[in-house]
Amino acid sequence: MSTRTALVTGANKGIGYEIAAGLGALGYRVGVGARDGTRREAAVTRLRDAGVDAFGVPLDVTDDASVAAAADLVAEHAGHLDALVNNAGITGGPAQQPTTVDLDVVRTVVETNVLGVIRVTNAMLPLLRRSPSPRIVNVSSGVGSLTRQSAGDEGTTGPVAVAYSPSKTLLNAVTLQYVRELAGTGVLVNCACPGYVATDLNGFRGVRTPQQGAATPVRLATLPDGGPTGGFFEDAGVVPW
Length: 241
Hints:
It is a single chain. The protein has helices at residues 14-25, 37-49, 64-77, 103-128, 146-151, 154-157, 164-181, 210-221; strands at residues 5-8, 29-34, 54-58, 83-86, 135-139, 188-192, 232-234, 237-238. Helices cover 44% and strands 14% of the residues. The chain is globular, with a radius of gyration of 17 Å. The chain has one domain: Rossmann fold (3-Layer(aba) Sandwich). Helix 4 (103-128) links the parallel strand 4 (83-86) and strand 5. The chain is of the alpha/beta class.
């Protein structure tokens, strides 16, 4: 276990790619989890060209068989896992007014943003338990903060989005259930808010770079023993639930 290993989902582009690059720069072997084979392998090549020990992991977080195969692949490459960063996520598009939303949109967003995290985390936990210092980071969003939503300031809550924003609130709640179950095991589990990052997820309207957005997830994935668990963090500090 001299080489630390991380798996980042949705790592072929944007924030996920920069999380992979950041962990690789710290000496981690990085599994690049992504559905699209062409983009996945392009990301692996780019990371390797930058000196990162990267390998591709075909991974659709909504598919049980894909996730199980991904766990087998990580086991084959490394035999253990030191950090899991659940970054893959979707917005569900702009039409998310609660009174008119298509319920299939809500189901699809929750399937990826919440159930996908549970699916991947459970598949990877046996590998994480083989690490002396396992870390799980769930990439959430400040728009999932009920405190900020109730304040009604669109500068911190974003537009009305009955699929995306509540999916991140549910992800935060699910994270705390993992914290409770894994208490005392050494597995540190936290949520990270990358901020409003310019990616294709939001039509590149964000005000932060993917590198800036990756900073908090990378920090939480590399916490020292005795670090925080069960927290919700952004660059500026703690995000209110």
